[in-house]
Automatic annotation (TrEMBL):
PANTHER family: SUCROSE PHOSPHORYLASE
Naturally occurring in which organism (per UniProt): Methylophilus flavus
Transmembrane segments: none
Alphabetical list of Gene3D superfamilies matching this protein: Restriction endonuclease-like alpha-beta roll domain
InterPro entries associated with the record: Restrct_endonuc-II-like, YaeQ, YaeQ_sf
Superkingdom classification of source: Bacteria
Protein name: YaeQ family protein
């Protein structure tokens, strides 16, 4: 018998002063049986960093041909392809051919640093890729709850996270950015 996804209801408030984006979102996220709380919350943070009315969660772990998040234009063309984790470099190249802008969000501390050391030379050659590293996701994972009310405030690329259990800052290092 296959395990079912766990459903998370998230009341999300975003105040992104860098992009002048101020919105409330009521999200329902499905946590894949093999997914950790860290990965779930990194997907949520990726949504926050690129929040837009057309940004949607994809099938991610359930479908190799879909990203974790994507944004399409009115014609169905993929404008932004966002994945979290440590993929093979060829997967990023493949996404570059399918989307105008690819965002790869790395996490995992030292493991992510090793991934970047191995793949940076090839990835830096790609024109339409942004690479973001989240060096410390421990507090973000601790905030995970099936019924969660959480706020993200972004100013000068500093991210303040507030929820019922307290507040903390999280650093998102941009290793490569699209101009």
């Amino acid at each position: 018998m296959a395990l079912k996804s766990t459903i998370y209801k998230i009341d999300l408030n975003i105040a992104d002063m860098d992009r002048h984006y101020y919105q409330q979102h009521n999200l329902t996220l499905a946590k894949h049986p093999s997914e950790t709380d860290v990965r779930l919350m990194v997907r949520l943070l990726a949504f926050v960093l690129y929040a837009d009315e057309n940004l949607l969660f994809g099938n991610g772990l359930s479908d190799d041909d879909e990203p974790d998040l994507w944004q399409k234009d009115l014609t169905g063309a993929i404008q932004r392809w966002i994945c979290v984790g440590l993929p093979e470099e060829r997967e990023i190249r493949k996404a570059c051919g399918r989307s105008k802008h690819v965002v790869q969000v790395l996490y995992g501390g030292r493991t992510a640093d090793m991934w970047w050391a191995q793949n940076s030379k090839a990835v830096l050659k790609l024109d339409n890729v942004t690479i973001i590293n989240l060096p410390d996701t421990e507090q973000l994972a601790a905030a995970a709850a099936r019924g969660l009310s959480i706020s993200f405030t972004i100013q000068d690329q500093q991210i303040l996270v507030s929820y019922e259990g307290g507040s903390f800052e999280i650093e998102a290092l941009r290793l490569k950015d699209v101009d």
